[in-house]
Amino acid sequence: MIRRLLVANRGEIARRVFATCRAMGVETVAVYSDADADSPHVAEADYAVHLPGNAPTATYLRGDLLIAAARKCGADAVHPGYGFLSENADFARAVIDAGLTWVGPSPKAIAMMGSKLEAKALLAEAGVPMLPTALEPDEVDTFPVLVKASAGGGGRGMRIVRDRESLAEAVASARREAASAFGDGTVFCERYVERARHIEVQIMADSHGNVVPLGERECSIQRRHQKIVEETPSPAVDAPLRERLFQAATAAARAVSYVGAGTVEFLLAPTGEFFFLEMNTRLQVEHPVTECVVGVDMVRLQLVVAEGGALPFDGPPPLHGHAIEVRLYAEDPANAWMPSTGTLHRFDVPGAAHAFAPLPAPGLRLDSGVAGGSVIGVHYDPMLAKLIAWAPTRAEAARMLGGALARARIHGVTTNRDLLVRVLRLSAFLSGETDTGFLDRHPEVFAPLLSSVDAVRLSCLAAALAGAARRARTALLPGLPSGWRNVPSALQTVVYEGPTGTIEVGYRLGRTNDLAAWAVRSIDPEDVGLPGAALDPAGAPDHPPAAILSATGERVVLDVDGVRLQFAVHEVDGVSFVDSPEGSVALTELPRFPLPVAEQPEGSLIAPLPGAVGRVLVVPGQRVAAGDLLLTVEAMKLEHPVHAPTDGVISDLRVAAGSQVESGALLAVLSPS
Fold first, then answer.
1. Distance CA 237, CA 218 (A)
2. Contact between 197 and 266 (Cβ < 8 Å)
3. Which of 206, 436, 542, 638 is found 20 to 30 A from 345 (Cα to Cα)?
């Protein structure tokens, strides 16, 4: 029996495993890097061991330190979670050699499935259908192809290539990314199937010979080849197809004498054919949807199997209802999925009453690695949380999930929340028309929820009125309306930097704090500080009539043309986060008379986000062409390229490989030809 378990991981998955351990009476041990010292997973563990440093290679990827931590705390078992060393056969072997229980499949099975090339060769003999594969770029004769890393997963080391001219650079880039992420730069090319679906089968196997499929999941909606929406059952899989998928997944598991939780992933073509992609020898990120519809705790089953116990079923259990999961990332979908860093000032998802465990009844479940006050840095994956909805039908699950996300209050970092809501409400999604190219075909999902002109204006007005209410608290004569004058003059003005640019808000309050006049306009940033008299409400007849029903520093209620609207306003360090039924917006208040700032030289290339400079491919004086790759910035386990925007000469280079840079830092100067 496992008495004390160390989770060789961090964040959300560590908290997930701890939750089951608490329910089973198993003591828990956390490990943490410098950056994770205040992480929720550390506070929730019975014991915690510090791993000095921040880089994964110095902390969570150091198997020797993890085993030493287990010994130091008296742990007798290790759960790897997902990512990091979860599919590293050498680490699994070292854990077992140290006399600890390994919560996972055998090192031999991990090694066999850890190399996608070896797995394809082995499982082809077992009768599992495969796609044509090329080991070297010059062997490719048909396009498009998908360049894939042989080791690891999560979309890293993957590139779609549609012509021979792009193949060499794609292979080189994938090799670098795979070597950095997994320590193995081996890649191969596989035929790319257009309009395919990503279907996977969850299997659980014990040491008594039972291999049981626990339903299939559809994970077709992806960005950067990484899943963001997962569901079960798939709307594209009927009973006969499900049976064939189960047979192939079971054959794959039996071919390697698999024991534990695993996932066999397939590509489903529009023709109905399916092909093996890979086998993940660990717990998947999306396992909660399976837990909902099957009614099992998969972490508990992992522990039972690791202790030598048998599964409680010998065949596929029935599925109940429909479950959908979305991954909430700290990133900006409209800006090339650029990761976002900073302090998460508020993180609240109303209605999510359950977390980290199977739902007792249809509803919402939130599995998060963060909480209000968490700092989102550059060292690890940008996933903040997973929100799961379980309902009797797919349509109900999508509606419940979209509504909860739309009402969520997530302040401090940019997230993909709005995109997820638009996907869940899109008719193409609701009708089940999903595949791996879904986001490319539906650019409308990249629009913010708060997109109508009136909604943006009213949110800006609410932020300004909340600011006036906060200032009135400390006024010398608090009984007077904010900005009161005996003779009405120009409107009171506030200038914000918002998602669509610089916005000026003007308002005038009457004697009883009623809204006598208001107007909102977009302005050129150079106009900030000019008199607000130009903001004439009479010149803006398209503004809807509005009246203040109540206004405090945190909540504004307006009557807008006979409709009552509530706005929650959360102000932090000059930034107002405004949430309403229409959506959310962050507004940074600009000074009325801004101080001059030093201008960057013409042709400046700026760091798109904080991180470490990876490769530097140019030197001062070098002539480059538009589109040339100049350097890369590595952050959140991804490589972000910096290309030349135009032809020119590198007149100044401010960084070298390994340099740490902040967002907005000057990297180089490109003087146009």
1. 9
2. no
3. 638
Tell me if residue 668 falls in helix, strand or coil.
strand
DSSP letter, residue 321? S
Which one-letter amino acid corresponds to residue 615? R
Peptide bond before residue 144 is cis, with ω within 30 degrees of 0 = yes
Confidence of residue 600 (pLDDT cuts 50, 70, 90): confident
Q: Which of helix, strand or coil describes residue 595?
A: coil
Mean per-residue pLDDT over the chain, rounded: 91
Q: Which residue has the tokens 């929730």?
A: 44
Amino acid code (one letter) for 367: D
β-sheet bridge partners, residue 501: 498
- Tell me what pLDDT residue 2 has: 98
Decide the pairing of beta strands 260-268 and 197-205: antiparallel
pTM above 0.85, yes or no: yes
**How far does Cα 303 stand from its chain's mean position?**
28
The pLDDT confidence band at residue 149, using thresholds 50, 70 and 90, is: confident
What does the alpha-carbon distance between residue 196 and residue 190 come to, in Å, rounded to a whole number?
14
Give residue 366's identity as a one-letter amino acid code: L
Concatenate the DSSP letters of all residues of 129-148 into one string. ----EESSGGG--SSSEEEE
Beta bridge partners of 593: none
d(CA 49, CA 62): 13
Name the residue with tokens 């909606």: 221
Strands 77-79 and 4-7: parallel
Contacts 24+ apart (CB under 8 A), 65-70: 65/31, 66/6, 66/8, 66/31, 66/91, 67/94, 67/95, 67/98, 67/100, 69/6, 69/29, 69/31, 70/6, 70/29, 70/95, 70/98, 70/100
Which tokens is 663 given? 């967002």
Let me know: does 225 contact 322? Beta carbons within 8 Å. Answer: no
Which position has the token pair 């929720």? 40
Question: Mapping DSSP to helix (H, G, I), strand (E, B) and coil, where does residue 322 land?
Answer: strand
Q: Sorting pLDDT into bands at 50, 70 and 90, what band is 128? A: very high
80-105 average pLDDT score: 97
